[in-house]
Amino acid sequence: MIRFLGPIGVLGVLAIAIVFASLNGSQRVTLDLGLFVLHGVPVTLVAFGGLFAGMFVMLVTGIRSDLKVRQILRQRLAEEDREERELRDETQRDLFDPAPPTPALPESSTEEPGGPMA
């Protein structure tokens, strides 16, 4: 059930976006961006533009944070590996004996199969 929670959430957001766009498709607003003013911009464009801008900002900040966490984990893993290499248990034994040596194959003769010829 938990694995269906993500797709259900995405479908829910998509359904809300479709309903919002269909109910407000004809609405127009004036958008003041500080440097310039846009008149008659569809409200759905403003809403979805804000949504995508927010997603982009979260992506950029998330990448920075993710790289920091990955660096910390890499350092911890290297430290643990170094500690494990330094720590040796001299009382440790192998569970099984090493593989027995394989018997030597009989040497092949250089004579012809038919025997020596006189």
Walk me through the structure.
This protein is mainly alpha-helical and 118 residues long. It is built from two helices and two strands. The chain has helices at 5-23, 43-86, and strands spanning 28-32, 37-42. It has a two-stranded antiparallel sheet. The chain is elongated, with a radius of gyration of 36 Å. The model has no long low-confidence stretch (mean pLDDT 82).
Brief overview:
It is built from two helices and two strands. The chain has 118 residues and is mainly alpha-helical. The model has no long low-confidence stretch (mean pLDDT 82).
Helix content: 40-55%
Q: Identify the strand order in the major beta sheet.
A: 1-2
The biggest sheet, with number of strands, parallel, antiparallel or mixed sense and barrel status, is:
2 strands, antiparallel
In terms of DSSP E residues, the strand content is 5-15%
Q: What letter string, H or E per element, gives the SSE order?
A: HEEH
Give the key terms.
118 residues; mainly alpha; two-stranded antiparallel ribbon; 2 helices; 2 strands; 53% helix
Question: Helix and strand layout, with pairings?
Answer:
Blueprint lengths: L4 H19 L4 E5 L4 E6 H44 L32
Antiparallel strand pairs: 1-2
